[in-house]
Amino acid sequence: MLPVYQEVKPNPLQGANLCSRVFFWWLNPLFKIGHKRRLEEDDMYSVLPEDRSQHLGEELQGFWDKEVLRAENDAQKPSLTRAIIKCYWKSYLVLGIFTLIEESAKVIQPIFLGKIINYFENYDPMDSVALNTAYAYATVLTVCTLILAILHHLYFYHVQCAGMRLRIAMCHMIYRKALRLSNMAMGKTTTGQIVNLLSNDVNKFDQVTVFLHFLWAGPLQAIAVTALLWMEIGISCLAGMAVLIILLPFQSCFGKLFSSLRSKTATFTDARIRTMNEVITGIRIIKMYAWEKSFSDLVTNLRKKEISKILRSSYLRGMNLASFFSASKIIVFVTFTTYVLLGNVITASRVFVAVTLYGAVRLTVTLFFPAAIEKVSEAIISIRRIQNFLLLDEISQRNRQPPSDGKKMVHVQDFTAFWDKASETPTLQGLSFTVRPGELLAVVGPVGAGKSSLLSAVLGELAPSHGLVSVHGRIAYVSQQPWVFSGTVRSNILFGKKYEKERYEKVIKACALKKDLQLLEDGDLTVIGDRGTTLSGGQKARVNLARAVYQDADIYLLDDPLSAVDAEVSRHLFELCICQTLHEKITILVTHQLQYLKAASQILILKDGKMVQKGTYTEFLKSGIDFGSLLKKDNEESEQLPVPGTPTLRNRTFSESSVWSQQSSRPSLKDGAVETQDTENVPVTLSDENRSEGKVGFQAYKNYFRAGAHWIVIIFLILLNTAAQVAYVLQDWWLSYWANQQSMLNVTVNGGGNITKKLDLNWYLGIYSGLTAATVLFGIARSLLVFYVLVNSSQTLHNKMFESILKAPVLFFDRNPIGRILNRFSKDIGHLDDLLPLTVLDFIQTLLQVVGVVSVAVAVIPWIAIPLVPLGIVFIFLRRYFLETSRDVKRLESTTRSPVFSHLSSSLQGLWTIRAYKAEERCQELFDAHQDLHSEAWFLFLTTSRWFAVRLDAICAMFVIVVAFGSLILAKTLDAGQVGLALSYALTLMGMFQWCVRQSAEVENMMISVERVIEYTDLEKEAPWECQKRPPPTWPHEGVIIFDNVNFMYSLDGPLVLKHLTALIKSREKEPVLFTGTMRKNLDPFNEHTDEELWNALQEVQLKETIEDLPGKMDTELAESGSNFSVGQRQLVCLARAILRKNQILIIDEATANVDPRTDELIQKKIREKFAHCTVLTIAHRLNTIIDSDRIMVLDSGRLKEYDEPYVLLQNKESLFYKMVQQLGKAEAAALTETAKQVYFKRNYPHIGHTDHMVTNTSNGQPSTLTIFETAL
């Protein structure tokens, strides 16, 4: 495994002084670098020692272990929440002091604001004492503002760090647990679910710590504000508070509705993405069968349902935002209407103190407090899920000590075991055998006989329900589905052992990897990337074998390592590797290749988990046993081999990883998991990420809005937004105007006695009510319209992109890993559906409010425009400067996150291998290293955003100071109402301005998703699906294939794969791609056949009994990519699919690589019978399956070397084909030659009654079967 990351740049925070910590100055050098060039991984600062994954994980693990012990003693269920609280309560409690100071400052501010306005109400130019007091008040106000600006960000930084620590500790514990899961436990969970814990559930901790303190601060603040308001305006304040309290359940009711809609949407989204995943995985099949239209309809229907739900939840969200936007207006309206109707007189100081106090409490009560409740409940659910996972069974730690006399051996006695405790039939029953050093035990048996289970019993993965297994010595294990992790080929082979050149070279030679490594560009230092793509299946199998051999263990468990390679390589591996290199070792080999049984010291024949016979090859020969017949599959049910399997994971779609947690009813290692394993392929992925540099062009915004609505609608939308904001400001302005009119009346009357004249209430209240209503209505209309347009545009773009993908040439799918294409459909479309409309609306609202605040201030005191200009310039420069760095930090954060997930999913796929080699410790270290790297980026992400926020708030504080002191200096020309309006607005700017800027950056970031989607809407297209010249409906009449000097390459710049190929094939397809859904859907996706036809097809391939035994028969849901069937069974299903379609040409690509000879014979027989009228092309590595073909074509590196009847080729001792047959050994070669001869004579000279007991071709029309044979690399 790759080395743990070396020490990086020391973290400057460790040596920073107090000032630097408060203002985040220590980050300045980083911003300078970010300004000059792109940030790379080595620019990041190392993790603080107290934030290291290992330290945090072990600390929390300690508390959890104590808690588990305590619970056992008290006979209770252990509580993870309790362990977390015990671990973190002290450090978190201290942060509560911050909250207290900050919320108090928010409450004090309005009081001093009131005092300043008071000065204006009783303005007397002569009174210098009053002026000085006013200056003092203004100073206190600005000090409060500054305290808020600084404290707020320190607090947020610390709580986010607390959240990060908790998350890291949890991830460490989850991974540690994953490596110890027993197979029973693996049955209860899936890779998808574990990855989901690691990607979604732990993220809740990042959020919950931020809001937790508001659970007590919220109510406290509400009480304090109510008390102050009572002192200020008496009983009327209760009316406003009542509205506030009423709004709370109203909002939570919205929230509940929203989350129920959300979960419904999620099921549709899951279904759509799962279907998309299958479309992309099986795109070759879809294009071959011309199924695009049907699949297109399928996805479009799913998307329609999903969008209708999304629209509804978006409208709810819109209502929620609008209610938040106008809540303060309604509250103030209700308060003052009550106040005036109770016969009180309105004054500016009272109005604006109330407005500001409500503003302070509203954020806490309507935003933070509900958020705290919501996040806490989410976190509790997540904790419960993680707790259940941490309580799953662990594998019993077996020590494989050498016995006291130092003899190494494997001894199994009377062993019985179940994979699934619930099932009646045991997986293995009554097995007994002993293997000693220098012996080779071969295990053979039909598909599903329990051969892999036998190895897992020796590994200790399958716990005995009866009997015993004793293993003395170190184990090396080679799995059936080869497992490679991302790293170099060499690191895959060394697997943590030291590199010793001589030994390494020997291993490479024995495993036939020498030539392969020369062909790879960087030799054994080539990086195995995305899904192990750089290697072919055969190469992966050999790398796996090489890893085991290099370990130099005592006991070797080899699970069918020879089936993925061709005859020549298979022979090389068997002779050089298994028989020579491992000859002193204990070796247990599971195999389907009967030709090697002679070399085995003993042979064990399994069937349905029972041992049919055991003995040596000679014993078997004496007793006249026919191996072939022993491996026959009777019609009894084949016990499935569930093995901890893994649903396929795709890179970087983890936000949607819930998609993959579809529980497979019985996962099995026979899953296509390893082929589709996605690990971040660094070179490939980075090329993808480069797009996130620089700004998003105006064009993208235009396309995005235009996709949603006609330009007339968009112009209307702009007008509506403006109207809403104008109404918003006018409502406050009217209040200040009213207060001014009132105070002017008071002054004039004062001359002749103290009678306060009342204004015409109906007129003022009437207009006030009208403006309030307008604000609310415009606010709601605007929210709904924005959502309507943007969700619409998401729908349009999705459809365009999907259409474009279906029409893209196959090469596109070879060039781009599934994960990357799927990412556009899951993550990017997810952003367009969900986050982007919300963020855009939020941004528009806050931006207009900021504009409103500034314009009000300028209207009141035109002089303010002067300091505004430099502040504006500083701001624009700051934002540019910040975004240069923050974009890179964000990119680094997402690229460093991926390896954490890849490492987890790849570890789960190789779980048995890791445990067999005792590599858990090393994997854990590697996981911690990946986590620490991500923490470096995350830490920067937190601190850089705080750096920016502190500076933004400083700008706002400047603005407040300018307004406060400016109004005092210009006191002569101003009246109280105007000052109140300008100052109270300036104070609201504090949080709002930086929220606005943050949302603008968010919008820009998410627009990258729009760009990525638009980029996929015009890919190069293949030829149209339907052309003008239509062939007759009965075409083709017969399957004639002509190659005329064909040169072929996969891509324009790729190498020639076929060179000058000329051949005539006189007068159909098969690869095991299964789709999720029922068996019926897999055989017949578009319901074109009757049930009877389907059952017949299944009967033909001998799957009928297996399917009938399933609970839902033909309507049984297949697990993801068919993982509840073994590879062999999946190939049979595909063969059944081909039988149903009755095409003229059948192409069979390695149909029988993963099945035992018996099943192989069955498949070949079916092909001869069922496809007698077809032209059949077989691509194969097993010679016995194709020796009776009509012709054999031998290709070597793309050139046609030989093309003739098998028997004719065998007559030529120089031919490649002859040499390949000889490789199989004398007996086998003689048998094949004899078969070829019989077929040849029967076909060409049928009248010579050749004594023939072979059924080769019982069809009247001579079919043409051709075999294409590729030599080894």
TrEMBL record:
It is found in: Apical cell membrane; Basolateral cell membrane. Residues 657-683 are annotated as: Disordered. Residues 657-667 have a biased composition (Low complexity). GO terms for molecular function: ABC-type glutathione S-conjugate transporter activity; ABC-type xenobiotic transporter activity; ATP binding; ATP hydrolysis activity. Residues 410-633, 987-1222 form the ABC transporter domain. Residues 93-377, 715-1005 form the ABC transmembrane type-1 domain. Its EC number is 7.6.2.2, 7.6.2.3. It is a multi-pass membrane protein. Keywords: ATP-binding, Cell membrane, Lipid transport, Membrane, Nucleotide-binding, Translocase, Transmembrane, Transmembrane helix, Transport. SUPFAM superfamilies: ABC transporter transmembrane region, P-loop containing nucleoside triphosphate hydrolases. Its cofactor is Mg(2+). It comes from the Eukaryota. GO terms for cellular component: apical plasma membrane; basolateral plasma membrane. It is an enzyme of class 7 (translocase). GO terms for biological process: leukotriene transport; lipid transport. It catalyses: glycodeoxycholate(in) + glutathione(in) + ATP + H2O = glycodeoxycholate(out) + glutathione(out) + ADP + phosphate + H(+); dehydroepiandrosterone 3-sulfate(in) + ATP + H2O = dehydroepiandrosterone 3-sulfate(out) + ADP + phosphate + H(+); glycocholate(in) + glutathione(in) + ATP + H2O = glycocholate(out) + glutathione(out) + ADP + phosphate + H(+); tauroursodeoxycholate(in) + glutathione(in) + ATP + H2O = tauroursodeoxycholate(out) + glutathione(out) + ADP + phosphate + H(+). Interacts (via PDZ-binding motif) with SNX27 (via PDZ domain); this interaction accelerates MRP4 internalization. This is Multidrug resistance-associated protein 4. It comes from Macaca fascicularis (Crab-eating macaque). The lineage of its organism: Eukaryota, Metazoa, Chordata, Craniata, Vertebrata.
